[in-house]
Amino acid sequence: MGERKGVNKYYPPDFNPEKHGSLNRYHNSHPLRERARKLSQGILVIRFEMPYNIWCDGCKNHIGMGVRYNAEKKKVGNYYTTPIYRFRMKCHLCVNYIEMQTDPANCDYVIVSGAQRKEERWDMEDNEQVLTTEHEKKQKLETDAMFRLEHGEADRGALKKALPTLSHIQEAQNAWKDDFALNSLLRRRFREKKKAMQEEEEKDQALQAKASLAIPLVPETEDDRRLAALLKFHTLDSYEDRQRLKRSEIISRSWFPSAPAPGTGSSKASSVLKKLSQGRRAAPASAPITVGDLGIVRRRASRDAPVPSDSPGPGEPRRAAHDTPACPPACPQGTPGAQDSPQDAPAPGPSPKTADPSDAVQPDGRGSSLVADYSDSESD
User: Fold this and answer.
1) Biological process GO terms, please (predicted)?
2) Which residues have CB under 8 Å from 344's CB, separation 6+?
């Protein structure tokens, strides 16, 4: 403490090292400064740390172990050649003073006044530990033969009681005596266990990759094997089998669509005919729809002759579909003149009962043309 005040500090001009010796003697001050203010009374102020938990008698508060105080240190006696010191400090929570002193005989601190100790001590006698022999007992063992004999008999009885425990401890120590062999054994077992764990992990990863699983797999048990043996799964057709079945179905199927029955068209043509018949006249639901019901005039023409156009020429007047001369009733439909003339056609609107089967709509439309009859329309 004195050196930190004297090194590299100001030295006055009248300072004489031979006379003063140091700056502390020159300034007539102690090196410990305020800590030595009661040094004449044999008291030195030090930094004291609480050795255990206590309860303050003034404020009844708990003071934990390790709390530090500025304590007044004073020598109050000796234990043989070891001095006994007393420490006096003020509680930081109240005005009460706490006094403690050292106990060299038991290597402990004793509370003199101002506080109570929180009992947390370890009793060596209750825990059957070896106790230190007191000085008076040592002197008596050296001088009194009968006391020494009685003390020896008590020690032999204690040894007889502790012998099984000591032998068990000795056997345990001998088992661990060869450190190299035990270390080699442990390392060998560890390597085998680690290798088995790596193989199991590789199998699990392969199974997860094969089944596209993202869940952790648990170790297999005997119950799992027994349950798996009771289950039966049906194998599904593979992709190749399904493709082979589709090819066989395509090969066995006909290349051309099936021809519709005579007198019937496709579903689309049937729907169109029904709409046209509903717009012209109401027909019985049970009667079949014919060309005459729709007001359509059929013109027959030969395959080689060109089909005449319905549009009139430059010098001819426009003629409607209902002005076309109809074939007389006496004229048979199968005569060559009726087939060759493009103007000959049956009268529109025959009854459903007397309608010619040839009036039905032909699916291919070959050898005839259809012209709608709008004579009954309301338009001018």
Assistant:
1) mRNA splicing, via spliceosome
2) 300, 325, 327, 331, 337, 338
Instruction: Examine residue 98 and state whether it is found in any structural domain, yes or no.
Output: yes
Instruction: Tell whether 256 is covered by a domain.
Output: no
Eight-class DSSP state of 283: -
Q: What is the 3-state secondary structure of 346-377?
A: CCCCCCCCCCCHHHCCCCCCCCEEEEECCCCC
Instruction: Share the mean pLDDT of the chain.
Output: 75
The answer as to whether 40 is a domain residue is yes
Let me know: does 55 contact 64? Beta carbons within 8 Å.
no
Q: Which tens digits make up the pLDDT trace of 135-157?
A: 788 888 888 888 888 888 888 88
pLDDT in tens, 3-14: 555 455 778 888
pLDDT of residue 99: 95
Q: What secondary structure, in 3-state letters, does 174-188 show?
A: HHCCCHHHHHHHHHH
Residue at 57 is within a domain: yes
Which two three-digit tokens encode residue 162?
Answer: 């502790």
Integer Cα distance of 356 and 27 in angstroms: 153
User: Highest mean pLDDT: which of 87-101, 110-124, 217-231?
Assistant: 87-101
Domain count, the chain: 1
Give the DSSP per-residue string, 159-209.
HHHHHHHHHHHHHHHHHT--HHHHHHHHHHHHHHHHHHHHHHHHHHHHHHH
Amino acid occupying residue 269: A
Burial class for 73, CB neighbours closer than 10 Å (0-12, 13-18, 19+): middle
**68-79 and 108-113: which strand pairing?**
unpaired
Residue whose token pair is 């063992």: 141
d(CA 325, CA 299): 11
**In which domain, by residue range, is 84 found?**
32-117
Nearest to 292 by CA among 338, 361, 343, 342: 361
Kindly give the pairing relationship between strand 68-79 and strand 97-103: unpaired
